[in-house]
Every structure is written in C-alpha cells, then in structure tokens.
Amino acid sequence: MIAARRGWLSPLPPEGASAIVYRNTSHAAEMAAAQGVRAVDLMRVGIVDRIVDERPDAADEPAAFCLRLGAALADELYQLMRLPPGEHARRRHQRYRRLGL
Question: Where in the sequence is the domain holding 9, given as residue range(s)?
Fold first, then answer.
C-alpha cells in the first residue's frame, strides 16, 4: 500500500467526524489524528508500506508528485516480481490477519 504523505483512509472522513462531534469541520485534523487514519498512523500499524512526499501539497506540484508516485509504484512492483510464487499472497494474508490486534 502506497499513500500520499497527507493522505488518510477511513469510511468516515475526518471532516465528517468533526461535524458529528463538534458540529463544524474545523477540527478535521484533530479528528484524523484521533481516528488514526493518517498515512503515518497507517504506516505505524503496518497497513501502509510506503509514503510518497508532497512538497508542500500534491495539488501544488502535480507533475512532480506523479513522477515520485510513479517511481514508488515501479519500485514496489519490481520488489513484488522478485518474490517467489505464492509469497505475496502469504504475506498479504499474514498482514490482514494481524490488523486490529
């Protein structure tokens, strides 16, 4: 799993959580940290393998960000192709068995 530095993964966006808890979206960053859904949080628990930097934001430098993302994808695919048959599936199975523990 590859994520942008400021990316997050959640069924409820931090803005939605902020709206429910605080009745406004101004606490979205705080809620993202509390939810543990930021890319750095997800990397810490083993869901995200690699983070691609945004300098300062991917929207401000889309071509350069896409080049970094493409390089990260190429490297990850190369690493996957070097695994023995069945190893990727075995690792993925182990990863998802330990989530939430």
Answer: 2-98
The count of structural domains within the chain is 1
pTM of the model: 0.77
pLDDT tens digits along 40-93: 999 998 889 999 999 988 999 999 999 999 999 999 999 999 999 999 899 888
Amino acid at 62: P
Q: What is the DSSP letter of 12?
A: S
Residue 96 and residue 99: Cα distance in Å, rounded?
Answer: 5
The tokens for 63 are 């071509």
Q: In this structure, are residues 3 and 46 in contact, taking their beta carbons and an 8 Å threshold?
A: no
CA 15 to chain centre: 17
